[in-house]
Design a protein that fits this description.
The chain is mainly α. It folds into 2 domains: 18-88 and 240-255, Orthogonal Bundle (Arc Repressor Mutant, subunit A), CATH 1.10.10; 98-233, Four Helix Bundle (Hemerythrin (Met), subunit A), CATH 1.20.120. The protein contains 13 helices and 2 strands. The chain has a two-stranded antiparallel ribbon with strand order 1-2. It is globular and about 55 Å long.
């Protein structure tokens, strides 16, 4: 499957491989974000600037810039005189992320029905089939393959918005990080498998003629597994106290490598 589809992660996607054409802060941003998405820096893990700078062989400046950007994204959080850590989502925060994604992507599904041409519809159906094949192969898969699957999942959903013809909506989906948080929630809750035909059925609905069916399909698609994610992540939010001992923060970071 991997060789047949020849899927590659998005630029900056491979953790441990810094991209030579990016600025140092961009490299640090992608590296840290991808470590979070891989689960190497789990929810609540402390992020020491000193340890990160040593690991990436950079000064503190690009590391600090990257962490500030990740904090704006909502992936990390900082506390004065305590430090920075991977953000621990609250149940309310998780529900709000799901709600935002649903609002954006049901509109993308609607526009896809209205505006997609035959070539665009066929592309979406093909991507849906390929994505189902990829998810069916995740049992026992290595980390690189899982990263590729999630990257392709993001590409699939962004492509739906692109084919729908509204660039601002497509950019909003990317800017609001709704697909990144879906990835984070899947990783943190250790959800890998999906029902057979999960994305193919969605693709068929949004390439059909009914706006109502397309919106319903996207809504059900996004809500699938939401309660399981909430339950799986509840222990993180229940034990949400900051750890303030510097030695403990260093051990958390080193243990996640």
């Amino acid at each position: 499957m991997k060789a047949e589809l020849q899927l590659m992660p998005e630029p900056g996607a491979s953790a441990g491989r810094l991209q030579p054409m990016e600025s140092l802060s961009e490299q640090a941003y992608h590296f840290i974000r991808n470590q979070i998405l891989r689960g190497r820096y789990p929810l609540g893990a402390a992020l020491s600037r000193r340890a990160l700078a040593k690991e990436m062989r950079m000064s503190f400046v690009p590391i600090s810039e990257a962490l500030q950007r990740l904090e704006m994204d909502g992936l990390v959080e900082s506390k004065p005189r305590v430090g920075t850590r991977v953000r621990v989502p609250t149940p309310q925060g998780i529900l709000e992320r799901y709600g935002l994604r649903e609002a954006l992507e049901t509109q993308a599904a609607r526009l896809c029905v209205e505006n997609a041409d035959d070539a665009g519809r066929e592309e979406i159906r093909k991507m849906g089939r390929q994505l189902d094949q990829l998810y069916a192969s995740t049992g026992g898969a290595d980390e690189e393959f899982l990263f590729t699957v999630h990257s392709y999942h993001m590409k699939f959903h962004l492509r739906i918005a692109e084919i729908g013809g509204n660039t601002l909506l497509r950019n909003a989906i990317e800017r609001e990080q709704v697909l990144v948080f879906n990835w984070l929630f899947d990783t943190a809750s250790q959800r890998r498998s999906l029902p057979p035909g999960f994305h193919s059925r969605l693709a068929e609905a949004i390439t059909g003629q009914s706006i109502e069916l397309a919106e319903e399909a996207m809504r059900a698609h996004i809500r699938y597994g939401r309660e399981n994610v909430l339950e799986a992540l509840r222990p993180f939010s229940d034990g949400n106290a900051w750890r303030v001992r510097r030695g403990r923060r260093r051990r958390v970071l080193s243990a996640t490598r």
